[in-house]
Amino acid sequence: MAFVDADKLSYEIFSILESKFLYGLDDPNKLFFPTSSSYSSAGASPRTATRAGGRIRILSIDGGGSPSDALLAAVALARLESSLRRRSGDPSARVADMFDVAAGSGAGGVLVAMLFTRDHDGRPLFSATDALHLLLSESRRRRGRGFSSRRGLFRGMFRRPGSFFRRIFGDATLRDTVKPVLIPCYDLATGAPFLFSRADAVEADGYDFRMWEVCAATCADASTAAVDLRSVDGRTRVTAVGAGVAMANPVAAAITHVLHNKPEFPFAAGVEDLMVVSLGASAPAPAAPCAAEFVRIAGEGFSDMVDQAVAMAFGRRRASNYLRIQDTAFMSGNCTPKTTSSAEAAERVLSQRHVESQLFRGRGKTSERTNGDELDRFAEELVKEEEWRKKGPIPTVVLKQVMTPRTSSATTATTVTVTTTISTSTTST
């Protein structure tokens, strides 16, 4: 017990000294905050009076085995964003406003890029609703050009490095994001996963890549052809296949990035300092196993193991600090009919009862609340965190800044695309 108390005292002393010398706070009263009861729900401990920083908010989106999985995450994020706007009273609030870090694999990486890349006015290129409408609009356009299968349609949309990505992002690079992003792929040249990171891009030109190429890399189909790309300065080369090969669920990478990145997240000492929303993939309809299905099963099994291990790492705080949304229909035998559209299937997932992961104990405990209810509950916690930060004199996150930011030509083209795509929507942006 003495060892634990010494650890706690050392952390408190370090926090005070860091606050004083990094942020110039000489008033001891400003280094402490009153206990807040608003965070004591579902087994979470109230914020202690000696905690100088807030909780780091992480968004993670799985890649899944099919590009259509992007619609599951897009529908869930549109629901979350609507709840954030309602609870914050800000009709222009974006998902990117309420998260500090975003990680996405495969189609999930495309969504992260869409929601966190900066527009010409410094705001995110897309709201979650705009991104969803653009994906649906593009899918209808491609279906009109002769794509008969939904799977084939979305494969062409995400896994071919062509005009779709270029039209959205133009010349924007990893540096042109409003928050830190992490988007993985598998590099055939080194035989290891490669993580595209804003933090690395800001540190060195050799790790800054064009966003449209990053999206192509994380979605590259290993069964067809790899994607060759170079950093903006040409120094770093990656021969990429899709991230589903090695990192379909990037939540663990996002958590370790935060906990070991003290310059940007100085007060993140453990999982008690994190809030995580992890969006999984939709369940596949039963089919005769083929090589592609075995790859998908392996990737989803790995994703589930990451989810369960992360849930156990949160311990008793996983009910309040960690939320995982995933389609469980396949596990229960109630698979989506083939005639159901991807958007309808995603809405069905939100109406499912929420399942909490338990390590090596099957699918875990089933909640009385739905996945949609859990998203609404977490939205309230995200808004509370944002409001708490506005009252504190010490910044929770200190992002590295680009000394000579590049101007991107992506924003003009994207603005035209969004305006045309969502002109029939009544959602305010």
TrEMBL record:
The keyword Ion transport is annotated on this UniProt entry: no
Domain PNPLA span(s) in chain numbering: 59-255
Gene Ontology terms: biological process: lipid catabolic process
GO molecular function list: hydrolase activity
Gene3D superfamilies in the cross-refs: Cytosolic phospholipase A2 catalytic domain
Cited SUPFAM superfamilies: FabD/lysophospholipase-like
Keyword terms: Hydrolase, Lipid degradation, Lipid metabolism
One Pfam family in the UniProt entry: Patatin
EC number assigned by the record: 3.1.1.-
Functional note: Lipolytic acyl hydrolase (LAH).
Domain comment in the entry: The nitrogen atoms of the two glycine residues in the GGXR motif define the oxyanion hole, and stabilize the oxyanion that forms during the nucleophilic attack by the catalytic serine during substrate cleavage.
Similarity comment text for this entry: Belongs to the patatin family.
Protein name per Swiss-Prot or TrEMBL: Patatin
